[in-house]
Amino acid sequence: MRLIILEDADIVADWAARFVLQRVTQFAPGPDKRFVLGLPTGGTPLGMYRKLIQFYKEGKISFKYVTTFNMDEYVGLPRDHPESYHYYMWNEFFKHVDIDPAQAHVLDGNAPDLVAECARFERLIQEAGGVHLFIGGIGPDGHIAFNEPGSSLVSRTRVKTLAYDTLEANKRFFGNDISKVPRQALTVGVGTVMDAKEVMILITGVHKALALAKAVEEGVNHMWTVSAFQQHPQTLFVCDEAATLELRVKTVKYFKVTITPVCLAVPEAERFDHPSD
Ligand SMILES: N[C@@H]1[C@@H](O)[C@H](O)[C@@H](COP(=O)(O)O)O[C@@H]1O
């Protein structure tokens, strides 16, 4: 596990986009060799998507041979509702790049059989050969995707009832009316994300500081599901200074002195190569 501490949310977005650019470029995808990317929604990754769109327009990256799997989707929200994750992904990212819509997978929260839909999603990931890079965000309660506190750390894609903290955190997208936030979601499991070859989790803002501290300084704990990634062989937590406020000085110094300068000091083309822990 590596913790990359950057100055602010804009720099985190830029760093994350460059990381994706580098991984996709290194992989050199083609018709018989697709790069498989796991994607999050929420406010945190928006800057990264904007930067990736810019890279695409500048001809630095193509998504033609990239297959994507999104982490989660609300249950029962119409696909064209402005807060559905389908709508978010299409408007914030997919429609701006050359991705094949048939290869951009988002769970269907309106499927007649939600259990079958979750099984189908797991099967599609398997058929794609697994995820090369899963990008995630977290809630202030340390959930990854919609794996709420208490979720099994070996869980697979399934229906989850949302925790009160999540409804509170997400009501800002529903006119600040908690009663309008869907009560359930489909989500990849912790185990689904753990199967990815590499994981990058973006954490910004002081409201995520406690979750980051629980994620990296305390033991693996199903009440802070993102902490499971301490046991993943290749996970990067990329955060801003504000998110470090609950960390020990010792932790911050260790990662700033020993990790970040190494990543930033090397030539751009060689950045982000890190051995697994
Ligand atoms: N299910 C999503 C998560 O996948 C996301 O990571 C989280 C954080 O969102 P934000 O980046 O807006 O804080 O929100 C929701 O709960």
Automatic annotation (TrEMBL):
Cellular component GO terms, alphabetical: cytoplasm
Pfam families: Glucosamine_iso (PF01182)
Enzyme class: hydrolase
Keywords: Carbohydrate metabolism, Cytoplasm, Hydrolase
Record pathway: Nucleotide-sugar biosynthesis; UDP-N-acetyl-alpha-D-glucosamine biosynthesis; alpha-D-glucosamine 6-phosphate from D-fructose 6-phosphate: step 1/1
CDD domains given in the database record: GlcN6P_deaminase
InterPro entries the UniProt entry points to: Glc/Gal-6P_isomerase, Glucosamine6P_isomerase, Glucosamine6P_isomerase_CS, NagB/RpiA_transferase-like
GO BP terms, alphabetized: carbohydrate metabolic process; glucosamine catabolic process; N-acetylglucosamine catabolic process; N-acetylneuraminate catabolic process
Gene3D superfamilies: 3.40.50.1360
Main localization category: cytoplasm
The protein's Enzyme Commission number: 3.5.99.6
Single GO MF annotation: glucosamine-6-phosphate deaminase activity
Catalytic activity: alpha-D-glucosamine 6-phosphate + H2O = beta-D-fructose 6-phosphate + NH4(+)
Protein location: Cytoplasm
Keyword Cytoplasm recorded: yes
Residue span, Glucosamine/galactosamine-6-phosphate isomerase domain: 8-232
Keyword presence, Transferase: no
Biological role: Catalyzes the reversible conversion of alpha-D-glucosamine 6-phosphate (GlcN-6P) into beta-D-fructose 6-phosphate (Fru-6P) and ammonium ion, a regulatory reaction step in de novo uridine diphosphate-N-acetyl-alpha-D-glucosamine (UDP-GlcNAc) biosynthesis via hexosamine pathway.
Family designation: Belongs to the glucosamine/galactosamine-6-phosphate isomerase family.
HAMAP family according to UniProt: GlcN6P_deamin
Subunit structure: Homohexamer.
PANTHER family recorded: GLUCOSAMINE-6-PHOSPHATE ISOMERASE
Protein name: Glucosamine-6-phosphate isomerase
Species lineage: Eukaryota, Metazoa, Ecdysozoa, Arthropoda, Hexapoda
